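Below is a filled-in request sheet from our internal design queue. Each sheet records the structural input a requester submitted and the sequence that came back. We keep these sheets so that new team members can see what a complete request looks like end to end.

REQUESTER: design group, bay 2
PRIORITY: normal
MODE: inverse folding
CHAIN LENGTH: 106
BACKBONE (tokenized):
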């Protein structure tokens, strides 16, 4: 087994899920420049997370979309644009078929 594989510089760090308003103090090697004053009056390094056990659907039992980078909106916009293109092509095909049928009847 390799020696000195695991880090040894563990220190108290606060992890904060600002969406859920949830934070906890634990030991970590995560590096950060931010600090926060904790409930015990001491100041600790702060690591902000997008999702935690307080906001994850697996733990909460409810479905919640947390869209920090606009991915859901972009996906919905692409899906709507694709549906519009499909409808436009279907209308164009109907008009083309109707024009061919009208030409064949003459």
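RETURNED SEQUENCE:
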């Amino acid at each position: 087994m390799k020696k000195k594989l695991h880090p040894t510089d563990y220190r108290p760090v606060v992890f904060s899920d600002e969406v859920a308003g949830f934070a906890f103090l634990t030991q970590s090697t995560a590096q950060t420049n931010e600090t926060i004053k904790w409930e015990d009056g001491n100041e600790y390094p702060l690591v902000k997370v997008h999702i935690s056990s307080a906001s994850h659907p697996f733990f909460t039992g409810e479905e919640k979309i947390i869209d920090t980078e606009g991915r859901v909106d972009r996906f919905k916009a692409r899906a709507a644009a694709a549906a519009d293109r499909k409808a436009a092509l279907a209308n164009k095909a109907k008009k083309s078929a109707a024009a061919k049928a009208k030409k064949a009847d003459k």
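SHEET NOTES:
- The two ends are 87 Å apart (CA to CA).
- The chain has two domains: 7-66, 72-106.
FILED BY: M.R.
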